[in-house]
Amino acid sequence: MKRLFSSGLLLLIASLAACSGSGVVEPTVPAPNIGQTESITPEPVDLPTPTLEPPPKVLQAPQEAEKTTQFSVAPDRDLFRLTKELVPGSGDIPRTVTRDTTEYSVGRTDTFWLVDLADTKTYQSDFELVLVSPHAYWYVEDGLNFSLSGIERSASRFEEVIYPVVTQVFGSEWNPGIDNDPRLNILNAKLRGVAGYFSSTDEYPTGVRPRSNQREIIYINALNVPPGGANYDQVLAHELQHAIHWNADNSEDTWVNEGLAELSSSIALNSSFSIREFLRGAPISLINWPTSALGGIANYGAASLFIHFLTEHYGGRDDLRALLAQPEDGIAGIDGYLKKMGFDSRFDDVFEEWAVANVLDGDGKLGYGDLEVSASISRSIKGFNEARSEIPQYAVEYTELKSISEPFTLSFKGQTTTPLLPVEVGAAGCWWSNSGDSIDSTLFRRVELPMGATATLKYEVWFEIEEDWDYVYVEVSVDGGQTWRIIETPATSPENPIGNGFGPGYTGDSGGWLKESVDLSPYAGEDLWVRFQYVTDDAVNASGACFRDLSIERPGEAAGITADGLGWESRGFVFTNNLVRQDFQVQLITTGDEPQVRRLNLDANNAGELTVLPPGDGARLIVAVGSLAEKTRQPASYTLSVSPAD
After folding, report:
1. In this structure, what DSSP letter does residue 315 have?
2. Which of 155, 449, 451, 520 has minimal CB crowding within 10 Å?
3. What is the DSSP letter of 158?
4. Total domains, the chain
């Protein structure tokens, strides 16, 4: 499910985005409350610029180590192409629609589709147009008590501050857009569970997304975030960035998109975002967001703070259109942006610096010029001792070294590989669907099946997929792959409560390996192809699916067992032995009047050590450990030990 937070406890922003299927609004993760401004630390320490050693040499895995999976980039999802392939009779669909008038007037009533996140359903409601400003139509839902003067105040700030500032920095929304109208639509609604959302569903015609409103729309919960207030305006700035980002790159990873949306509010309104839950909490992943409600606030804090750091030190915030326009997504997009801007640093370098800045917050690159930041240090090693820990990927954990009065050796040992999936795949391996937001991965092959012949496609499948939002389909084509028919199996789900599915598919959690089979005999004599297809929505994804022991069984013939190849072709799927190379970043931070940062150079077995002198009076020794393993959501374990120096 999507993250849902009770508005009685915390009113959150959600960015809603499009997925495949029949056009239902697809929400991303709700964002943190944007209420009162918070200072991260009450008494920040003014530190000089710390010294930082040159980066260590990158070591290769030892020759005798097990081979790890090499990943390919999953193709972006194209809803127009998917509709043409999977919806019979759809054909070519125009990308824009023709309106019945060139400009709407105050007093008109329109019916709009909305989403109820609390009950995971869509519904329709009537809205009255109460105000027209240069860049927006301002609607109010029937039955909602509202202040017209409040809407007028927010509309004035939107026109005078928010829209010009945000569009100057990030670029423009699709304009004149799907409806050929240069104005946005602001819907003041009785939403549940969120402060507001942007839905890219509305950017598609109803032939692609039947529940599209076919306009550029920002939805705001006017019950809990009344127009005219600072919170309302911050929601507007946040969601406006989502509309702009969809126009620039409609397949961006959630963590980048949400981090930039928070930055949009900060730039336009000088507002502070809530990162306290991230800084004071346990280590969480910057890039891998949960599919449940747990951890959402802290994930938002991490993304907000990282994007804040990146844009402060790498290119500035005057014009971020180059970052939004990167065709690559997530980490690859950050790398592409840094390269385009002429920096030698890449994401891993920035991540390493960010880990230090969140402790030191000094002058220069390893700090923040406009924030007060201090990460909590919840772990410690006292004296000569050791500690073992396990942390998520792309997370940072801090451990303070205490009660040491003589020179010592700091040692680190981390695992060298991590499972890709939380399941045993067997010695033969399996075909993994890949992962990501707004992707369309396929695994396919042609099947020679003469007229009158019989054959059965057999396989085992494991899946952990965002339930009712993302789907894996089993398909056949008899026209050379121009169109595909979705096949129902015992384990596929016909349920489609929010309309994201094109047909029955694997979704949710399989609970283990499932044996499945598909009778191909009805397609004998045809130009037959079989395909597995994984389609994800714009926001949040889980581990995906893996297929093993694939075979096309014919009477009297031996089964062809899964292998890397054997007739199967892939666009996005990856053959894996379930092992991923595990990397770490380990840094020793000395605070005080002369802060210092030392890296532990790790060998190919992820082991390293440093000889350390006790710090001076008032200084602290803090070890920052960052874990970096591509694609996997499984945690990384390591051991820190402190022993007397030789």
Report:
1. T
2. 451
3. I
4. 3
